[in-house]
Write a structure and sequence with these properties.
Layout lengths: L6 E6 L5 E8 L4 E6 L12 H6 L2 E6 L18 H11 L5 E6 L3 H10 L4 E7 L16 H8 L1 H11 L2 H4 L11 H8 L1 H14 L5 H9 L14 E7 L7 H10 L4 E5 L6 H4 L1 H9 L1
Parallel strand pairs: 3-4, 3-5, 5-6, 6-7, 7-8
Antiparallel strand pairs: 1-2, 2-4
Length: 283
């Protein structure tokens, strides 16, 4: 069964760009802004019925260049909080939580860094950690070195290697995955959700996806120790897209954060254990 949002709309930002967003769950609930992974889009949302029962108003947003959101040339991670500030102001939201899934983590943390009075909690689910400065001699760090030295060329390299995403996005679902994620994608509802998400993500091409790949490899513009909001970290132990070591790095850099592992989960943790995640946050 395909879930439909309560709202699927567009906001014109001060610089004239379009920002697309959707709202799910309880329209009067506690606002949580969920920032999608890469590739991803605003149509990626866990079960809205569970969201509503938890008293949560979940707001999903297309980052620039994804879905219906206009691109922002040469954008940086710290540019994102300004877009979020305009969106929350338009929706009449004063205080809110931010949630990042996978590559959406840096953008959630950036909002907490830039708007500490308004962002009360950061929830990181299967999220990437900052990359260290690349080794100048290691072949394993070739793309990281290129992202630091020539971001545009690094983005072009990623776009060339992932060019098939724009033409055959369904191939993304057939990449090798651990057993929990494979089972999730064998379920008709799970596969339909991911396929719809990926198709929407690349409707403008894969430039946004390639640039996200560069930005997460470069300095994010802030240190994790500077995050003052409460941080919750949820991680599947069988995740191969973002391995558990990333969660350990995030937790080590933010010692006051809460860290919970799910032994039976892969990268689809957010969908499979959504009810438990919301219960932990409510408790």
């Amino acid at each position: 069964m395909r879930h439909e949002p309560l709202v699927d709309a567009d906001l014109q930002l001060n610089d004239g760009r379009n920002l697309a967003y959707s709202i799910w769950g309880d329209p009067a609930g506690r606002p949580i802004l969920l920032f999608h992974g890469s590739p991803g889009s605003r149509v990626f949302a866990p079960n809205p019925k569970v969201t509503a029962e938890a008293g949560v108003r979940l707001i999903t947003v297309d980052r620039p260049g994804y879905g219906r959101s206009d691109p922002k040339p040469a954008r940086q991670i710290l540019d994102w909080p300004a877009d979020v500030e305009q969106l929350t102001a338009a929706l009449g939201i004063q205080e809110f939580d931010v949630m990042g899934h996978s590559s959406g983590g840096p953008y959630a943390l950036a909002c907490a860094f830039q708007n500490p009075p308004r962002v009360k909690r950061v929830i990181l689910i299967s999220c990437v950690a900052p990359h260290p400065e690349p080794d100048l001699v290691s072949d394993d760090d070739a793309l990281d070195r290129l992202a630091w030295s020539d971001p545009d060329q690094a983005a072009e390299a990623i776009a060339q290697s992932a060019g098939w995403l724009a033409d055959t996005p369904e191939r993304f679902l057939d990449l090798p995955r651990p057993e929990p994620d494979r089972r999730l994608l064998e379920e008709p509802d799970g596969r339909a959700l991911f396929l719809n998400t990926i198709r929407e993500a690349v409707r403008q091409g894969i430039d946004a996806y390639a640039w996200d790949g560069v930005l997460e490899r470069r300095p994010w513009g802030f240190a994790l120790v500077e995050i003052g909001a409460d941080v919750w970290i949820f991680q599947g132990e069988q995740d191969q897209a973002v391995p558990p070591s990333e969660a350990h790095l995030l937790a080590a850099a933010m010692p006051t954060g809460r860290l919970r592992f799910f032994p039976d989960a892969g990268h689809g943790l957010i969908l499979v254990h959504w009810s438990e995640i919301l219960s932990d946050l409510k408790a």
